[in-house]
């Protein structure tokens, strides 16, 4: 899901920020509870959660960079 952000599109900007905060909270909860996860024998879940969070963070980073390039008018794609 790619969120198209324009200069004056506050709703989409807020959505990206909320998604960023959700991913960061999920990271924090996973780190705080990793001992509990390991004690219950669910060590196989941690790499899966790590990959999912890494992909989400990478997608958000690309989205934020594209938005910054559009705001700076360096890039006008997609029109």
Q: Which structural class fits the helix and strand makeup?
A: mainly alpha
Shape: elongated
Note the main sheet: none
How many beta-strand elements? 0
Chain-averaged pLDDT: 81
Percent strand equals under 5%
The parts where pLDDT drops under 50 for at least 5 residues are none
Rg from Cα = 16 Å
Query: Distance between the terminal alpha carbons, to the nearest Å?
Result: 18 Å
Order of helices and strands: HHH
**Proportion of residues in helical segments:** over 70%
The number of helical segments is 3
Fold blueprint:
Blueprint: H1 10-32, H2 34-39, H3 45-71
Helix pairs in contact: 1-3
Written description of the protein model:
By secondary structure, the protein is mainly α. 71% of the residues lie in helices and 0% in strands. The two termini are 18 Å apart.
Write a short abstract of this structure.
The chain is mostly helical and 79 residues long. It has three helices and no strands.
Features:
single chain; 79 residues; mainly alpha; 3 helices; 71% helix; 0% strand; elongated
